[in-house]
Amino acid sequence: MGAAERVVRAAPGRQTGGVTAGVQAAVAARVPGAAALGLLAPPSAVAVPAALLADADWTSARLAALGARYASDDRRVLATVWWYSASSVLLTPVLAGLVTGRPLSARLADTSVALLAGGTLVAATSSAPGGDTAAELRDALAEVVDVVAAAGRMRARPLWAIAADSLANRLLALGRALGEERRVTALAAPLAAAVGPPLPVPRYVDVAGVRFTRRVSCCLLYRLPPEPLCTSCPRRPAAEREVLLEDTAARMR
């Protein structure tokens, strides 16, 4: 059995029901650096159903584990940091399918996520062709955002903003990998508009010839010391952010 057809199973008692990587493998084969982008799970990772992301008990356990790692009991911060990472992983397969012309399902029921031993999400796998991408994304995001908001004892709207930034970031990364940055990032606004409110429309900014996501959300990672503010954080003064992005652009060229 080849790697493309290998069945990835969850831990005992929480199996994915035989999800295969075959459908997504055709997409991953078209994307340089697919593994680094989270389209191929590392052999050491454990696959679980993506539906667990919308499970209240499972999500609370993930936040508790994150809190233990950072010695924090701020549920809002922990939920925000968790979702900033999880949303990026969850969105990658459907966006990769979109940009390569081989649509993949965004439905939680058709998706598995891969976790490392410490509980970090590193990849996601869609096991079915896509249908209505915007509708599937709307439903999947709504299911998970509501659960994460409840677990974090916070409003849902900031989590939707994080999803918009994750969508923008993933399309930017995929565009760079494919060498088609402008074409791929141009998909962000119409896709978000089709998903509809409360998902904000993603934005980009070009600095010194390099495109970056113009973020509308804060990941709150700086609230978990010793993490600093992100370079593109909207909490930074605009002038300071511009200087930092110019420096980053210079190092990327």
TrEMBL record:
<feature type="domain" description="Ferric siderophore reductase C-terminal">
    <location>
        <begin position="215"/>
        <end position="235"/>
    </location>
</feature>
<dbReference type="InterPro" id="IPR024726">
    <property type="entry name" value="FhuF_C"/>
</dbReference>
<protein>
    <submittedName>
        <fullName>Ferric iron reductase</fullName>
    </submittedName>
</protein>
<dbReference type="Pfam" id="PF11575">
    <property type="entry name" value="FhuF_C"/>
</dbReference>
<dbReference type="GO" id="GO:0051537">
    <property type="term" value="F:2 iron, 2 sulfur cluster binding"/>
</dbReference>
